[in-house]
Specification:
The chain is an alpha/beta fold. It has 2 domains: 307 residues, Adenylosuccinate Synthetase, subunit A, domain 1 (Adenylosuccinate Synthetase, Chain A, domain 1, 3-Layer(aba) Sandwich), CATH 3.40.440; 89 residues, Adenylosuccinate Synthetase, subunit A, domain 2, CATH 1.10.300. The protein contains 12 helices and 17 strands. The strands form 4 sheets. Strands 1, 2, 5, 6, 7, 8, 9, 10, 13, 16 and 17 form an 11-stranded mixed sheet that branches. A two-stranded antiparallel ribbon has the order 3-4. Helix 4 crosses helix 5. The protein is globular, with a radius of gyration of 21 Å. The mean pLDDT is 93.
Length: 404
Amino acid sequence: MTSSFGNVCAIIGAQWGDEGKGKVVDIVAQHYDVIARACGGANAGHTIVIDGVQHIFHLLPSGCFHEGKPIILGAGMVLHLPTLLEEIEEMKKAGFDVLPRLYISSEAHILFEYHKKLDGVFEEARAKKKGKGIGTTMRGIGPAYQDKAARTGIRMESLDADLTSELKERAESIKEQFGLDIDINIELKNLEDARSVLKGCVTDTVSLIHEYLEDGKSILIEGAQGALLDLDHGSYPYVTSSSTTISGALQGLGLPPKVLKSCIGIAKAYCTRVGEGEFSSEASEDDGNRIRERGGEYGATTGRPRRCGWLSVPDLLKVVRLNGYTHWNITKLDVLDEEDQIPVMMSDGYQNLPGWKASTKGLTSFDELPENAKKYIQFIEEQTGVPVAFIGTGPEREEMIMKE
């Protein structure tokens, strides 16, 4: 498979996140030497189902289930250390010790508990001013990236430093500005806990990833969230606080564009969105509820019900241009199995495509698909100019069509 996608491949969400990147990352990762995540924080939720057991990641890349492969967390990330430690422990309980192969960028930023508190204050202020907030996950992502942009952030390179005075000053400033009480003892304990576990993991990952390339190693880049949430090119201001496109992923890992050989775009066979913001192809309440229940559309990070709708060709074309996708992974095709007609948003309104009214659940061969399901996939290929390489037909690891 590496020969099909080249020695550096990226997997980037094409919608508003929650597209089901985890499974294809898990499948493709077995053919790559190094697994890397570049940007974002614990607002991402990547779900993999293995032997009926659901595993949800927020910071560790989904490909970490493949033993022996180095895992890189890049400089573009904001790391909530208790969440990272919890995921490492959960992996250990599942029989996978990731610590000996985990490499964390010294340039990545630390996300503190006070960032989460500030997230709530800022969201409440937006709601009072505009009548509604952005719909953040309240995981502190925005405030952590604010500190980064203001050049006041604390990076992983400072994990071993005594940050008591620094945190006292921040607590006083936050109290003065926002009236929030910050418990620096909790912050210091979290740092100490992380220091004891992550000792030896923090390093210069830019040099490391280039050394891997020079040694002929192949690298899989795992994106977080989706391209329509990109800070620059997404549905602003209802976006995340980092760059979610391939450009942001390369920047977050310190890789030049010329090394990238392929980019797999992940899109559901329909579309979902969590939080506020535009959603031109959002379904009616009845249709949306039906899709949500059939697709289990509740946030992996927050548990919030996702807004559900139909595929939008204009949105797909936009993200193809932003990311230069070379292949598609269309996920959750089976969720549409019972639809009589499937609306698709076009530039001039909706086009209704015929449903297939037959089960695609668990199919692993394109030839086995009902004729109208094949036509639906071919329609996506024709409209976007990008071939479909993978088709998800259920949540299990094995429920995937690899289309030639």
